[in-house]
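> run fold Expansin
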Amino acid sequence: MGVLQSTLLYLILLHYFKIVAYKDQEWRKATATYAKDSEGSLVTEGACGYGDLHKASYRKHNAGLSTMLFNRGSTCGACYEIRCVDHILWCVMGSPSVVVTVTDFCAPNYGLSVDYGGWCNFPREHFEMSQAAFAEIAKNKADIVPVQYRRVKCERSGGMRFTMSGGSHFYQVLISNVGLYGEVIAVKVKGSKTGWIPMARNWGQNWHCNVNFQNQPLSFEVTISSGKTLTSYNVAPAKWMFGQTFEGKQFQEE
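> ok
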């Protein structure tokens, strides 16, 4: 078997096992802290690029992931169910769970040990949760708590959102409010004067290409980590402007 065939087989098997895992995923061990924020969300400019989390529909239940889980930004938009365990003093009684959306990166600090401040150091699995989400599973007086987590499907209201940015020959779109598996792995864009053009991940869930799309209605083809693809035609009108956000279709349970 050649290299190309082996690579294709690997990708097919990877998608298969990923889909199976999401349907019946076991709980895994990690740790969690929280970021203090008067509005209950992490930051307004996280590593996923969503900006104001309230406007991006992720609101108060969000989290930053350690390097091990963040996967260079490809996990942005994914959803995790988290519960506090094995700590009578700090865990909320009954170990209730909360679902959070990945919106940020928890940077490592190799100047500190993994047991004291270096909680996001590789290869540790750690969640830096919003204060509002953390309060649903543990007491705010807690410093760091042991948790269990698992991937779950994302429940979203409305369609996927496409936010335009860039310049005359550099086009970028931020994709947010993605349902089901949440994480986008491939994007194509089509103007009225072009065919389908693959976009590259710039950072987080910002995707770009070096094409001038001005004065063209735009369509998008989005593929999520399950391998499912959804096409939203003519999402943006011909007179779209940078900074605007448009709503497309939404991934639905089959």
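Residues 3-21 have pLDDT under 50 and may be disordered.
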